[in-house]
């Protein structure tokens, strides 16, 4: 069978993306939720809210393919597949819109413009980053493409009166909701789309009811699957959504709703950040071409312009109200629309150049080459070993059978889920997540992981659970009692294990929760000593100075937010070490560390007592 030029271009685009994304794909455990998502997919557990049931189920199936690869590499490559497939589908979407705009008069111009638009999206920074590691946004990208493709089919088929196209659109949206609830940003644009094509009458109302039924089917199926799997008590069962109440809280992301619509100041700040980053997502040249695309739509198809603007603004105006630090992927729909504008803008420029193919091809190559050159260094994660190196070194610094209480989720706790339970790196170390100790479901996980450690805590945990229940059910609760029992659990972890195993806390807990807010209090007769990457909890007197002060810095030459986070933790701990040594009379060793801090952590101000001995 002879392939058409359209099929050849589609296959070529997907292949180019597979190669390009594969070269920048992460080879190590990454930050934030990557470690957690890897382990819940490999073991088919429950991820943090909203659970992402389709994502984890597909990841579970893909992880069972016998490739011989390191598990994280195999699942990271699944992200590459999702994103490359998304670009292939997006190519079809751009092509459909262009055919609609010129009535198919110039197929070659439509095709080359669709290639430029789709690859402009592929090599935009936020999209490209989604292909580098195993996160829910890679599959989210594929669903964004599928929904836009169904929208483009409706436009292509002349104000489509075929119910099947609308039902397929609703089905794609339903599947998208089983992966990420931020798909809600589509709704304003889809409402505009529907009323562009359908009047309000009995037929349109009946169609909306059918669409609602089709939309809900995958949601019921996969969140039902999540509910049934949670009832089987997998080891990693975040939120334990095995009851209807906990399932609803999990799906709705109830614990994250406090970060929505927090203040107008946050919304304005997020909007400013988006507007400053938006042109740089592609390149200023691509941004200019996108504006040309909007101008072309104003003159030639205001219906498509209003649709795309409603999708763009619906996304931006909703997301800016969310106060989280990793907000960029939530703007993905806006970047998809921007790339569509790039494709249409390139079409309008190519139309003016008419038959000058060399200029059109040269301009397209320049546009894409500029994006790749500007973006490659920002997205390349192929040798990004910062998080894994830090996690491994910190884990290996602990004595055998240690207990560690930490809240370094982004740079340690989450990566250690994967390292410990998949690659068997220091499984003897018991890691307690300080903030997760506030949640009832977490104690089931701890009981399964560390039964001997948790058994003596049973009476206090039972009392804490009773006090916690009204809080988790949005009922009146005793905040003072909850705080008291929360602190008691911390004290009992130390008290019951102090004489049998080494106990440590993260430096961030010491700085923020013991010295800072005083949320936790150290039990009497307990002393804290800095030891490598953590702080040792000991019942010994102040003569304990035999710990090793030397260790390799784990952040190398990285300059991102996570290297800054690690530098701050390491430098603060080193300052604590120097102060401790100074207090025990070891001035020479304290001076050596202070000099080291001044050289390698110039951003940290040394206390006056250390400045005096330099």
Structural class comes to: mainly alpha
Q: Return Rg in Å.
A: 27 Å
How would you state the average pLDDT, rounded? 88
State the helix count.
26
Strand order of the largest sheet: 2-1-3-5-4
How much beta, percentage-wise? under 5%
Identify the overall geometry: globular
Termini Cα gap: 79 Å
* Amount of helix: 55-70%
Annotation, overall tally of beta strands:
5
What does the largest sheet look like? 5 strands, mixed
Q: Low-confidence runs (pLDDT<50, min 5 residues)?
A: 542-548
Structural commentary:
With 614 residues, this protein is mainly α. Helices cover 65% and strands 3% of the residues. It contains 26 helices and 5 strands. It has a 5-stranded mixed beta sheet. A hairpin with a 2-residue loop joins strand 4 and strand 5. Helix 1 packs parallel to helix 5, helix 13 packs across helix 15 and helix 14 packs antiparallel against helix 15. The N and C termini lie far apart (79 Å).
Spell out the blueprint of helices and strands:
Elements: H1 5-24, H2 34-42, H3 53-63, H4 71-102, H5 107-122, H6 125-130, H7 136-156, H8 163-177, H9 187-197, H10 202-231, H11 244-252, H12 264-282, H13 284-300, H14 302-319, H15 332-353, H16 357-379, H17 386-396, E1 403-406, H18 409-421, E2 430-433, H19 440-449, H20 451-454, H21 458-472, H22 479-497, E3 503-505, H23 507-514, E4 527-531, E5 534-538, H24 561-583, H25 587-600, H26 608-611
Helix pairs in contact: 1-4, 1-5, 2-3, 2-18, 4-5, 4-7, 4-15, 5-15, 5-16, 7-8, 8-10, 9-14, 12-13, 13-14, 13-15, 14-15, 15-16, 17-18, 21-22, 24-25
């Amino acid at each position: 069978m002879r392939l058409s030029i359209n099929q050849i271009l589609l296959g070529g685009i997907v292949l180019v993306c597979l190669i390009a994304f594969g070269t920048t794909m992460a080879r190590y455990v990454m930050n934030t939720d990557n470690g957690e998502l890897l382990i819940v997919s490999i073991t088919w557990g429950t991820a943090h809210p909203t659970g992402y049931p389709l994502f984890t189920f597909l990841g579970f199936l893909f992880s069972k393919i016998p490739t011989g690869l390191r598990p994280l590499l195999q699942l990271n490559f699944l992200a590459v597949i999702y994103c490359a497939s998304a670009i292939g589908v997006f190519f079809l979407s751009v092509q459909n819109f262009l055919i609609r705009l010129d009535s198919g008069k110039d197929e070659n111009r439509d095709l080359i413009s669709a290639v430029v638009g789709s690859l402009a999206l592929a090599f935009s920074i936020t999209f490209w980053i989604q292909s580098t590691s195993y996160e829910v946004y890679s599959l989210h990208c594929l669903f964004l493409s599928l929904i836009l493709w169904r929208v483009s089919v409706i436009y292509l088929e002349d104000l489509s009166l075929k119910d099947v196209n609308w039902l397929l659109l609703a089905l794609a949206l339903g599947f998208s909701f089983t992966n990420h609830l931020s798909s809600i940003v589509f709704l304003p644009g889809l409402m505009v789309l529907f009323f562009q094509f359908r009047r309000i009458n009995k037929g349109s109302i009946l169609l909306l009811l059918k669409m609602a039924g089709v939309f809900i089917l995958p949601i019921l199926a996969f969140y039902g699957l999540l509910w049934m799997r949670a009832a089987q008590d997998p080891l990693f069962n975040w939120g334990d959504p095995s009851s209807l109440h906990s399932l609803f809280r999990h799906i709705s992301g109830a614990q994250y709703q406090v970060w929505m619509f927090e203040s107008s100041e946050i919304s304005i700040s997020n909007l400013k950040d988006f507007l400053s980053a938006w042109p740089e997502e592609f390149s200023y040249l691509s941004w200019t071409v996108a504006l040309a695309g909007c101008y072309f739509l104003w003159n030639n198809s205001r219906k498509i312009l209003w649709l795309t603007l409603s999708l763009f603004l619906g996304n931006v105006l909703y997301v800016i109200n969310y106060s989280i630090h990793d907000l960029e992927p939530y703007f993905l729909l806006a970047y998809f629309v921007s790339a569509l504008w790039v494709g249409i803008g390139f079409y309008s420029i190519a139309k003016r150049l008419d038959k000058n193919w060399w200029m059109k091809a040269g301009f397209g190559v320049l546009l894409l080459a500029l994006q790749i050159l500007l973006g490659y260094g920002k997205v390349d994660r192929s040798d990004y070993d910062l998080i894994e190196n830090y996690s491994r070194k910190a884990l290996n610094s602990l004595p055998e059978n240690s207990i560690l209480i930490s809240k370094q989720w982004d740079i340690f706790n989450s990566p250690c889920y994967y390292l410990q339970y998949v690659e068997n790196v220091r499984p003897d170390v018991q890691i307690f997540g300080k903030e997760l100790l506030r949640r009832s479901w977490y104690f089931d996980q701890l009981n399964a992981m560390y039964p001997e450690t948790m058994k003596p805590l049973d009476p206090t945990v039972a009392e804490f659970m009773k006090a916690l229940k009204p809080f988790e059910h949005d009922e009146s609760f005793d905040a003072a009692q909850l705080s008291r029992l929360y602190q008691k659990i911390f004290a009992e972890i130390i008290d019951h294990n102090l004489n049998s195993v080494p106990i440590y806390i993260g430096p961030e807990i010491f700085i923020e929760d013991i010295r800072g807010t005083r949320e936790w209090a150290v039990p009497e007769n307990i002393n804290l000593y800095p030891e490598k990457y953590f702080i040792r909890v000991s019942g010994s007197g102040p003569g304990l100075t035999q710990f090793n002060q030397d260790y390799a810095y784990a952040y190398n030459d990285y300059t991102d937010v996570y290297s800054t986070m690690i530098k701050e933790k390491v430098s603060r701990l080193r300052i604590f070490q120097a102060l401790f040594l100074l207090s025990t009379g070891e001035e020479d060793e304290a001076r050596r560390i202070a000099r080291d801090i001044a050289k390698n952590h110039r951003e940290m101000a040394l206390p006056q007592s250390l400045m005096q001995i330099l």
